[in-house]
Every structure is written in structure tokens, then in C-alpha cells.
Amino acid sequence: MRVTWVGHASVLVQTPALNILTDPVWSENAGPFVLGPRRVTRPGIDLATLPKIDLIVVSHNHYDHLDLSTLKRLWDRDRPLIVTSLGNDAILRSAGIAAVAADWRRAITVEGRPRVDASHYWTRPIRVHVTRNHHWSSRWFTDRNRALWSSFVVELPGGNLFFAGDTGFGDGRWPAEARALGPIRLALIPIGAFRFTPGQMDSDSHIGPVQAAEVHARLGASTSIPIHWGTFRLSYEGYRTPPALLRATLACTGQRGFAPAQIGRPVDVAPYTAPNVRPPVTSTQLRHCLDTPAVRRLR
To answer: Whole-prediction pTM value?
Structure first.
């Protein structure tokens, strides 16, 4: 499996079976017309040089995740299978894009016999599970929560792919629900857009790095890559604060397998291996460990 972070929540996952793209956004602005936050980093891959895409997952309808202009170009070029959660298919159809929408705990089967390598096919069908997370939706002032938000699990040889989408921590049970669908080779977990007041570590709609580390543990993923940071200015933390706070958190918890990728630089992800289970760190211990001058200086 080869993974390239394009920026924000857009990730290219290349396997012998499928080329997968998550929440593809190549536009300069994350908003309607020319409104909304502007990019501060260029996409890591030029859209014209992107390989043929077989599967796209779209987590919800916010403009920094559902970009009609990008999706239209990909649809016209590749005719990929586009899987999303309920209600978002209507938005895509309005732009002439076909999509399959499903409720939480439903699965879509990818047609065909996906290759495992050059000469062998996987005997099982590849399924895309629409899974629960904790967020909200709105495309305009009058449509709040009329479409569903979701995460996804894609069943793949060598271990599953989990894409968290955009999420707060909520009840904290949704990572275990994704884990129950099979071992997770790679998890794509958001760590940014969490700080709206000084010192804030998370928000109801967006987990921060501290909660992301907990999600990584609850998923049991052998590898996780942090996303949803350093691309658009959506909150008040500095662009480099999310990965710095994640590194500090992991130093406190002793976790492994959760490291930032550079935009545009491919990363090879090994097949699933069970992560080493470490004794849990209590919230009090973690707060004390993170109460350092270096962490307090993070803006």
C-alpha cells in the first residue's frame, strides 16, 4: 500500500486492488463561489497527473470535504465509484455526478475481482462500510444536518483502511465499531481545526491531537497518519501546532505507529501487524505530562 497525503483530508491510497481517494479537494477556496478559507499549501499532487481513481469516499457536505469542481473533473475523467453517506448523493447529482449513498452500518460492494498482485486476485469482494463518527453537516444557511456525515472502512488485503472523515470524539465508541470490521492496516485521523479559545485541546466537532491519539489506540491500527491540518485556516491554532502537540502526546503515552506525513511525499504502509499494547495513561497523568513550557507555547 502506498499513501500520499494531498492535503487537508484528501489522501491517495494506492493498492494492487484499487486506487482510492478520500474527500478530494483541489480548489483554492473551501467555500461557495470564491468565498471561504484559502489554501496555504498547494495540493501534493497535480490533479492532471493523478493516476486513474477507482474509488472515492466523501465523508460529508462541508466545502472543505465535498468539492464539486474537483469531483466533477474526476468523474468525467475516470468514472470512479463514489461512496458517501445519506443525502450527499443529491448534491453530487446536481452536478451530474453519480454516487452511491448509504446509512451508517451499511456496506457497498466494489464490483469486479480486485488484484492482490500482478498474477493473483483476492477471492473476497472488496466492501466499503459507511461507519459512524461525530460531526454535523451544512452546505448553506437552511440545510443544517439534512445530510449525513460518516467515516469509512474499506476492506483490503493486508488489513483494512479506515478514514475518519471530519469528527469530534462524541461518545468515543465509534472507533471500536470500525475495529470490529477487521484489523486496520491504515487509519487516516484528523488532528486540526480544534482550537477556538486559548489552550483549547479539542472541540465538539473536531478532535485535537490528544483525542486523536486515543482514537488511534481504540482503533488498534498498526499505522495511522494525521490529516486535516496545515492546509486551510479553519481555527485559531498555528499551522504547525497539531503535529507538535501530537508528538508531545505520543511521547507521554508511549504509542507508536502514528506519525505525520509530508504533503505530496508517498509513504509505503506495511501489511497489518498487531500493535504493542501499552499500559493506558490516565487523563490526569496525560494532563500533567503535557503541562510543559513547550506545550504551553504552542499557539
So the answer is: 0.95
